[in-house]
Design a protein that fits this description.
mainly alpha
Length: about 575
């Protein structure tokens, strides 16, 4: 505006120029300004308050660079004492690995199957009644908030030790995430095919299987595969409550102070997580194609070969000239690959169920044990500890989650930004940081916490560092994907004016991705609250320590009280996240 007034007041300016300048100045003065709603102000103040609490928690828990430096020194001494890694016999290791993969896959597929009707009822455009939608949404939130380790404790009481408690715990806990993502995908479909089937007299089931499912199948497959990767990392903690597999053997090794063997199992689990992510990427590309396979280092690796094969195929205009041709799809290379991938997936599912060694008769006999097991947990009680002790431990869990989330956000903002293609200075930087995120994401937080606890001793420091480090892999990937999806117009406009990449990032990329960043941060906080509880089981501080002791001591009323506190906390965080996303939408 000052430049306009300067031009208007210059001696060389004519009457017309001065009139135009005055009109422009008047327009700028009278231009309406967007009013900030009280709700947005309240949300912003809430964000500031949460950040302040997280900083205070970080200080109170004595998490500093000096303490981390001391831990690095202790780590060198620890690994010098441990010596080399130990491994079981190859045949035993292979059997444990196959068993772990089998029970994780079976549990994930159980959740995928149960999520279909729940998502159908939870989606606004397919549910028969709004009350059923509310019930389905509640089931999703409840199963997502209920810790899988608690479910495993309950099922161990019903079925004794083995794989079935782990399968059911993984399956029920995973319903929450899969059904939510599936319901969101259903609500975003093109309504044309579904309404056309209805207009032709189709039933609700025909509408779903012919008009809805083909559109959401790519999203459903990608969500199930992503959840399977998470379940594989989470299966480690189930070993601490008696679920068979690598996690159980690793817990036995650490409890017997055989650290070399325990670290050997930890290395195997880490490599298994990386291999599983590679396989998931290959399956997504083979079944969904490069467009719907998502993003990631390994997805791009397999997509590149797909792109090359597509380039070698002759280009065609309309593939089907008549209805008869459309009904007789040709066996192209893409169709052969997708069909082969589908049959391989079916064979893997069958093999997973077989190697899990499920005693099917237990599914018929456990119903008689439900009243007795339920009576052990009710009514809830804090026992000899009292509410003050358990409440303080729950506050410690929240503080650990807040402190870890703060560190994760700071680190992920740097690493995730450099992993974004439109922010990284060159392709090597982009690929290098993407690979770093994959490696970090492959390390289960529980394994990292166990190693840190052995090095630094019991306490919240190990839990905070483990959660912060493990969260970088997930949050960094989400931030990188969000920054790559922002509109490129503002970025190109700034580059055209001579702005640097840092200026482009600060003025265009970050402001456009800030809304997604807020949503991802609250998702990370929600995840960390649940994970902090589990890390307490192995000595990472917080209420998880009391949860494990109560479970092992058969103090089930205390277990019920702690679970209720965890549920209330998780639901409060999720409600806050929903409100924040709605305000900043």
């Amino acid at each position: 505006m000052s430049s306009v007034l300067d031009r208007a007041g210059s001696p060389s300016a004519g009457p017309d120029a001065r009139g135009r300048a005055a009109a422009e100045a008047d327009l700028l003065v009278r231009a309406p300004r967007r009013r900030t709603s009280p709700e947005r102000i309240c949300a912003a103040l809430t964000l500031v308050a949460i950040t302040v609490i997280a900083v205070v928690s970080l200080i109170d828990l004595n998490i500093s660079l000096a303490s981390i430096g001391d831990s690095l020194g202790n780590a060198q001494n620890f690994f010098a004492r441990v010596g080399g890694l130990g491994f079981p016999e190859p045949a035993e290791l292979l059997e444990l690995t196959v068993l772990t993969v089998g029970l994780v896959l079976t549990g994930t597929l159980l959740a995928a199957a149960l999520s279909v009707p729940i998502a159908y009822l939870a989606a606004a455009n397919t549910t028969p009644h709004h009350m059923l939608r509310g019930i389905a949404r509640f089931i999703g939130v409840f199963t997502r908030a209920l810790p899988d380790v608690v479910l495993a404790m309950v099922f161990v009481l019903m079925f004794s030790l083995g794989t079935l408690p782990g399968i059911l715990a993984i399956g029920i806990h995973s319903i929450g995430m899969i059904s939510k993502m599936f319901a969101d995908a259903i609500e975003q479909i093109d309504e044309g095919p579904r309404l056309a089937i209805r207009a032709a007299g189709g039933t609700r089931s025909q509408e779903f299987f012919a008009g809805v499912l083909p559109q959401v199948l790519p999203s459903w497959v990608a969500t199930v595969l992503h959840r399977n990767d998470i379940n594989l990392r989470g299966s480690v903690v189930l070993g601490y409550v008696g679920v068979a597999g690598l996690g159980l053997e690793m817990s036995h090794a650490f409890k017997s102070l055989n650290y070399g063997l325990g670290l050997g199992y930890a290395l195997v689990i880490f490599l298994l997580c990386v291999v599983m992510e590679i396989i998931s990427s290959a399956v997504r590309v083979a079944m969904l194609g490069e467009k719907d396979a998502g993003k990631g280092v390994f997805v791009k690796l397999f997509s590149r070969g797909s792109i090359l094969r597509q380039a070698q195929e002759p280009k065609r205009g309309h593939r089907f000239g008549t209805v008869e041709q459309a009904l007789r799809r040709p066996w192209t290379a893409a169709r052969v690959r997708s069909t082969a991938a589908g049959w391989i997936a079916v064979l893997v599912v069958i093999a997973s169920v077989v190697v899990s060694e499920i005693v099917w008769s237990d599914l018929l006999s456990f119903w008689a044990r439900i009243p007795d097991v339920a009576a052990r947990f009710w009514p809830p009680s804090f026992g000899s500890y009292g509410f003050e002790v358990i409440g303080a431990a729950m506050l410690d869990t929240i503080r650990i989650a807040l402190a870890a989330t703060l560190i994760t956000v700071v680190l992920s903002l740097v690493i995730g930004s450099l992993a974004a293609r439109n922010v990284a200075p060159n392709r090597a930087t982009h690929r290098g940081f993407r690979l770093l995120l994959v490696i970090v994401r492959g390390i289960p937080e529980l394994i990292l916490a166990i190693v840190l606890i052995i090095i630094t001793g019991l306490g919240p420091q190990a839990g905070v560092i483990a959660l912060a480090f493990g969260g970088v892999g997930l949050l960094g990937k989400l931030i990188a994907d969000s920054f790559e999806e922002v509109p490129r117009g503002p970025e190109r406009a700034l580059l055209a004016t001579g702005a640097t990449r840092l200026q482009m990032y600060a003025a265009a990329t970050f402001p456009q991705g800030s809304r997604a960043l807020i949503g991802h941060t609250f998702y990370m906080l929600d995840t960390n609250v649940r994970a902090a509880t589990l890390l307490g089981i192995v000595g990472g501080g917080g209420v998880g320590y009391y949860l494990l002791n109560a479970g092992q001591g058969s103090n089930y009323p205390l277990v019920a009280s702690i679970v209720i506190m965890i549920l209330v906390t998780v639901l409060a965080v999720e409600g806050l996240a929903v409100w924040m996303r709605k305000v900043f939408r």
